[in-house]
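Complex record, three chains
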Amino acid sequence: MPEVAAFSGQRLAGVDDVRRINPLVPVQAQITRAITETHDTKTLYVVGLDGKVPFSLNPGQVAMLSLLGVGEGMFSGVDAGDHLEFSIKKVGALTGALHEVEPGQIVGLRGPYGNGFPLEFCRGKNLLFVAGGIGLAPLRSLVRFCIKHRSDFGGIHLVYGARTPGDLAFKGEIAGEWVAVEDFAISLTVDQGDRDWQHHVGFVPNLLRELKPAPDNTVCLVCGPPAMIKNSIVVLEELGFAAEEVLTTLEMRMKCGIGQCGRCNIGSCYVCLDGPVFRLADLKRYSSEY
Amino acid sequence: MMFLEKGDLHFVLDVLAGLGKLYVPAESNGITRFVPYGGEKTQVWLQTNTAISPKEILFPATETLYRYETGRGKETVKPVADHHAPLILFGIRSCDLQAITCLDDVFLDGEFVDELYRERRETATIIALSCAKAGPHCFCQSMGLDPLAHRQSDLQMYDYDQYYGLEANSDRGRLLLETLEKHDLLSVSGRENPVPALEFALEVETEGITEKLTGMFEHPLWEEVASKCLNCGICTYLCPACHCFDISEKLDNAHCGSKIRCWDSCMFSGYTRMAGGHNPRPGKRERVRERFMHKLCYFPQRYGKYLCTGCGRCLAKCPVGLEITKIMELVKEVENDA
Amino acid sequence: MMKQLIAQMQEIARELLETGIVQTVIGWEKGSRWYLSPPVFVRKPEDAGRLWYDQFAVPNLSGYLLDYRNKNEKVAVFVKGCDSRSVVRLIQDNQVRKENIVAIGVPCAGMRDQSAVNDEKEPHELPLLSKCLQCRYPNPVYADRTVGEAVVDKSLNVPDDLDAGTGLMGGDLTGDGSYVSSGIVERLEGLSSDDRYDFWQKAFSKCLRCYACRNVCPACSCRECIMDSEHSLWVGKGSSPTENMFNALIRAYHVAGRCTTCGECERVCPVGIPLMALNQFLGQEVNKLLEAYDAGIDETLKPPLEMYGWPDFDGLFRCAKGVRA
């Protein structure tokens, strides 16, 4: 644990640090790289002021990224070992400002928050990833984990859709790294293709219905816009997936990240604290809450 | 039990004011609330509970989390150094003390501790006061409370005609009693009047409500009761137990400002609206449902107690008569076909 | 008498729902305490019996019409004389379509002041609200149907004495800024500007920013209020006297010339801020500077601040341009 110079503005990030001092106060971190994924999505590399990874993030966990004077928002992150990666779609004032940051710039960071994916539960099973748009960002942390620990998991199938080919994020990583992974099937679709588009055209749930992935010994992980999640769930049920075998990771408006400010609840669970990963079985009653 | 003559109360308050920052219920600026005791000029109000709950002492409506400077190549974050004098809360009623225990559950007892709340709460000595009569909106008894005493007080005061009976529930309370004794303000010669049980105009049956509500998320009842709601924040802001908050920026200029935390309300449209515009609780139905479900179902599931303590402030001030007691009755009456 | 009237109200509601002319009837019902007659939404003919009317039916129901502006649903609403002015305002502002509302006028002999209740259990006499003591529109100025002896009366009734105070409730102005009275506008005008500033600072220091005043107001019809704007730098979300005052002043200016003086903002304020004094003051200023006008009386008469004509006071414009009048 690095030395903590409390209240001086020179605090270095650390999990205990965040918890010991007011958990709502961010530690400072630094942007080292900003990668343009699509016209509206960027991936930011973040390290602590000491150049090391600020804290470790399990696949599916989230962190609060902030810009002083602009705001604070919860993002799903990827722990790349020596840095954290946050893929951010431009939707509002904060994300707009985050798209403007340059390497070297200081940002605020607090976390890690949330439960992350149940790795033990997934171990030894086939994994079906169903993603829409920026919804691939939180799933990507698990995909990368699976690639790293390939022998721990069965077959992997990614069904990924976006509005247009230009909206598909992580294209380089998918086409470069992921296609080369053993027993890793990738099915892409877009709502609207262009001249060069050679894959499926249509919504993700429709593609799922065509592909008919088998539910046997398979965990399905879904993330995307609420409509995509809800319609995909219908198809997954048709295909015989049990509600206990379908996992989703949710996004809600959050302010505190620590289960106190109240707004991100689904029933008696807080998405920031008890989520963001939920079993579909736990969400059934509250499907209109996300 | 020790006794204090009611006529000597202001001497007691003067002594207490010397021991820490003393808050008393008082009429101030045309409204009753807990204010710092300022000697004789403070118009102490003990007839009924206050219009505004004491939650604002431990969890202020607006407070600064940290200040910051940014730009010109430097970024600094300065948490607010907030060293409090010990707090003494005088005249807290059972309902409001129960609400404080709810706030404790949220801010202190989870995985994360809210430091600003803890700093105040840990120094606070709570002197509870029994209620002499139940107000027209009171229903604390229905929520399982005793309007005459709350065990989590440090010192419990009982209202006996010309006397207050005093009983310590903690070391802090015993210390206070000793101090007051040293000032010759207490006697053992009072009489422990048997207080007749208070008569409540409002009673409501809570048995099984959490379990029943669990299956009522999609019930048409919510649409029905929510129509007349104005989605204002009166109920949540007057509630002693509502604890939801917002965090936002307050800019002093282009380079510095502060991060503030202020009360928020599940009744407001912006409460759950996400940056892209999607709002999982877009209308009155969803928001009204959330408020009552949180109080009577979700909170009990999570923390084992209701987030409503029967203080009745929301009943007294709701502009359209959307009353939680009625909701509880309706929940009990309706068929649960979910 | 009242019984008969209520029976008539219930009958109309039943008929409107049974025939499918409307899907919802907004009225009042008997409240949980003797002095309360809160709003009720009736959607089934068999529930029409819940409707109730008495001297405690204070809530102005017309603000609820804003909930229907995006719906293709026809709704009936009961209106007292003063409430009907808010309906006219909503129509004038294109917030509701005339053909989607059935306004049902009810007679009103004045509403009672609930703040004077001193026995919660036993009903007792209550004084009239002071807005009712100075009532100028006991009959609805707009209604599709009427019950009892109510008649639609569109005659303009702007008082000769534009300064006549019309506080919402009785009471007195106390030094600590706590409460309010009829004639408060004149009394405030009699104060020095410093004292007046202190008065309002004190009053707004207790504002909770609950927005009940805004949410109940039929003239507050913005789809998104600037106060709710996430990234507005005009006003923060936290409560502080200056920001609270800013919030209140923006609102007062925004409803100036459109406020129908229904007094709902002041009635619902949980901390007793004399909001109507502000609204009345600005209403009077508009009348003095532009023309004598009563908002919401005649659909065809545009509010003075929504038009500009040569006879208008134009000091503001000319000063801004640096041209002398």
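Note: Chain C touches chain B at residues 24, 31-33, 36, 38-41, 59, 63-64, 67, 120-121, 174, 176-179, 202, 205-206, 208-212, 214-216, 228, 230, 233, 236-240, 264, 267-268, 270-272 (CB under 8 Å).
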